[in-house]
Amino acid sequence: MDVSELQSPTAFLKRMLGGLPIPTVLSDYEQWWVAEGMEISNQVDRAGTPWLRMFDALGKRVDEILYPPAYWRALRQGYKAGLVWRAFEGGRLADCYLLGYITAFFDAGMYCPYTVSLSTAVPLEKYGDPTVKERFIPLLLRKDDRVWQGATWMTEAGGGSDLGTYVETRAYPTPQGWRLTGEKYFASNVGAELAVVAARRVEAPLTVKGLSLFLVPRHRADGSLNYTIRRLKDKIGTRSVPTGEVEFQDSEAYLLGRAEQGIYLILETLNLSRVANSIGSVALMQRALATAADFATKRVAFGKPIYEQPLLRRQFEEWFTLLKQAFCLAWEAVQMLEEVWKELPPYPPRYHLFRLVAHLAKYFTAELAVQTAKWTMEVYGGIGVLAEFGVERWLREAMILPIWEGTPHRQILDGLEAMERKRAHERLFDHLAPFAEPQAYEEIISQVDAMLSLPQEEKEAQSERVFHRLASFAAESLCRKHTFLRGEQSNSPPTGTAKNLIYQNLKIFPVKWR
Ligand SMILES: Cc1cc2nc3c(=O)[nH]c(=O)nc-3n(C[C@H](O)[C@H](O)[C@H](O)COP(=O)(O)OP(=O)(O)OC[C@H]3O[C@@H](n4cnc5c(N)ncnc54)[C@H](O)[C@@H]3O)c2cc1C
Q: Side-chain half-sphere of 429: how many Cα atoms within 13 Å?
């Protein structure tokens, strides 16, 4: 890989995709980050992290999140560029994720507000009552400084993996509309004007079936605070996004979709964010490797730059391969999401294929981001742990990527469910067949089949090993597909199915972009 391509997220995206939509928007956005955003991002990470002002000068509760003014400039840059509105005007989610890639290359934490704003706008657009949509959607899609932000709050103190048991926030209808009472323990982008919130209807079962999804504005109709913020979390990474604890007390809320279908809406919301997490993880990998390569070409040991030492050189090549594979898997999740994001329950089979790919991508890319960031520190040697060199930040930022939007265990077990109940792996194998290495293809099919035929306890216990192999196999096969689509050398001949794939791909990437 040409190391110079690593230094620019736009150049890497172009290299991987063979062409870009909105190329000027992407390169202008990157240029802004280089000229101004990087400095702001560093200042926020070191010293300017948002803080909570609970009371005004006269002692009135205001729960205001305060940011350095430069932070707002940075944040609004992304909203203007279209990290949310582009999904609706022109209807292409992929453009939002491309802009998200550039954001996360420079500041993984700052990708969070855009992600959760998109994950608020999409369920609102799909499931909101027409009057609620009319009132709030235009505010989330504004292109000026008055743009509203969103947030997605599900997790409570008891635990985030088992929402069916631990969501205790209560939802009850009143003549004036729905009201919520309860607490959310991890509430990122707290202070946002709108949030989508999981709550349990009174007398609903104590399982996921009792959960519904609500839109909760920051302020009540009379202008007073609709919920209070108890405190902000002191975090090791993603310090550019405030994460707080929130308390609802008879808070005004709008039901999204049908009350008993809430769990589907919650999972749709999470899936949008899981795809963003995958894209953000790859961007962070690229940033870490770019930093490592830059350092290694300058640092000299035993008479030459360490980049030219055979052992380190080989490691770099292996990381570059993994970076490309991780990108191809994450991008497949984006493309599949693009096809299915407007689907409603009960979902068609291709939605379940998307779900499986999203779980594989989230699982695979997040862990790789952590490992890449750790390895980058090693390349720097001792100075890698010194804050003033900046690389320790990539590890701090990366550590959260496997956890939020569902831990690796959750991705594996939900992926397992998509395979067992929806046979999503069979569609995945068909999808990858034209580009898979034949022996690896046969092996992974028999490994997945063998795992699925185990008794329940044993199956769960064995699932990580096989899930990891499946993710790696999918990433590798998809890399071959991308190589082939770019017209570069590929081991796979253009079979009939491969030609179909090219056709499908061109529908998503019209010729004019190439
Ligand atoms: C900085 C930050 C910001 C966040 N922002 C938000 C937000 O905005 N909105 C939101 O809703 N949440 C948010 N979260 C919460 C996050 O989604 C949860 O932390 C995550 O889903 C895990 O839940 P938990 O921490 O309660 O761990 P638990 O669910 O208690 O899990 C603990 C451990 O047990 C494992 N585990 C659980 N069940 C199983 C099983 N069946 N098999 C094997 N292992 C299992 C888990 O994988 C994990 O390793 C945020 C978290 C952080 C750290």
A: 16
Structure tokens at 6: 């690593």
CB atoms within 10 A of CB 308: 13
Tokens 């990157």 map to which residue?
30
Q: What span, in angstroms and rounded, lies between the C-alpha atoms of 502 and 494?
A: 9
Assigned superfamily of 264-485: Butyryl-CoA Dehydrogenase, subunit A, domain 3 (1.20.140.10)
Task: In whole angstroms, give the CA distance from residue 34 to residue 285.
Answer: 18
Residue pLDDT, tens place only, 73-110: 999 999 999 999 999 998 799 999 999 999 999 999 99
Which residues are registered as beta bridge partners of 212?
199
Residue 504 pLDDT greater than 60, yes or no:
no
User: Tokens at residue 60, please?
Assistant: 């009135």
Tell how far the Cα of 170 is from the centroid of ligand 1, in angstroms. 21
Q: Which two tokens stand for residue 331?
A: 């991008």
Please give the distance, rounded to the nearest whole angstrom, from the Cα atom of residue 480 to the centre of ligand 1: 34
188 lines ligand 1 (CB under 6 A): yes
The domain limits of the chain are 3-140, 152-260, 264-485
